[in-house]
From TrEMBL:
GO biological process: inositol metabolic process; L-histidine biosynthetic process; signal transduction
Keyword Nucleotide-binding: no
Membrane-spanning residues: none
Residues annotated to bind Mg(2+): 80, 95, 98, 222
EC number(s) stated in the UniProt entry for this protein: 3.1.3.15
Protein's name in the database: Histidinol-phosphatase
Cross-referenced Pfam families: Inositol_P
Organism: Sinorhizobium fredii (strain NBRC 101917 / NGR234)
Taxonomy, superkingdom: Bacteria
InterPro entries per the UniProt record, alphabetical: His_9_proposed (IPR011809), Inositol_monophosphatase-like (IPR000760)
Length: 269
């Protein structure tokens, strides 16, 4: 980050149409490979016994990087498959297939995540699910979903009572590794807990279907694109100490501020 903060009012943020172009190019690589027989490679990821990667992941990130670099050569890029390139106040943070496990299982809760940060803060993002023909994005005007019925604004739920809240976490497997996170207390406080939704669950929180999403040990490319979607829909996203979530780690997303505070108290209690 530069020593002198940039005046955000003087900065021209790329148009949302560019996010759609990126999603279009990525879908050309992911969708034809979905529900096909794919060679699956394994990567090493601390805390995980199996961390898969496929040609869909690699080729989708490749085309995303090519298009970003051609249009915005001065922007940095951080991606799951090929790391970080470039420097400067603008950084694209991308995950070509967030949810590779459901991707190889043929379950359409994966998505392509495309986020943009300015001086480390997420300013716009999109989650594209090409199989269901849905796109969710957050821009300077709000949070939006585009599907078969058209484009409409999203708004989070107004639930403030934990006992009436729906909680989602992708898997309970790793909570034993983090005894400081009181997942059981939160799980026992809510109305219902569901699992396995990957990035799609965060989109459903922004859409007003889920109240809380809790994830552990996220990387920036897992969350940056989702932050504007949730925040512009009225939600809150932070680390478990209330810090900004762009760097990943333990992340809680909530439908609104009061619910967020109650959930954090349960987790940290």
């Amino acid at each position: 980050m530069s020593e002198r903060r940039l005046d955000r009012n003087m900065i021209q943020i790329p148009p949302v149409s560019f996010l759609h172009r990126l999603a279009d190019e990525a879908s050309k690589e992911t969708l034809p490979r979905f529900r096909t027989t794919l060679a699956v490679e394994e990567k090493f990821k601390p805390g995980y016994r199996f961390d898969p990667v496929t040609l869909a992941d690699k080729e989708a990130e490749r085309v995303l990087r090519e298009l970003i670099s051609s249009e915005y050569p001065d922007h940095a890029i951080l991606g799951e498959e090929f790391g970080e390139t470039g420097t400067g106040p603008w950084k694209w943070v991308i995950d070509p297939v967030d949810g590779t496990r459901p991707f190889i299982c043929g379950i359409p809760v994966w998505g392509t995540l495309i986020g943009l940060t300015l001086e480390g803060r997420s300013v716009m993002g999109m989650m594209s699910q090409p199989f269901t023909k849905e796109r969710f994005w957050g821009d300077q005007e709000g949070a939006w979903v585009q599907d078969s019925s058209g484009t409409r604004r999203m708004k989070t739920r107004s639930t403030t009572d934990l006992s009436r809240a729906i909680l989602h976490t992708n898997s309970p497997d790793r909570y034993g590794d983090f005894p400081d996170v009181n997942f059981e207390r939160l799980r026992n406080s809510v109305q219902m807990t569901r699992y396995g939704g990957e990035c799609y669950a965060f989109a459903m929180l922004a859409s007003g279907q889920i109240d809380l999403c809790l994830e552990l040990a996220l990387q920036p490319y897992d969350i940056v694109a989702l932050i504007p979607i949730i925040e512009r829909a009225g939600g809150v996203v932070t680390g478990l100490n209330g810090e900004r979530p762009e760097d990943g780690g333990h992340v809680l997303a909530s439908a609104n501020g009061p619910l967020h505070e109650r959930a954090l108290k349960a987790l940290n209690g």
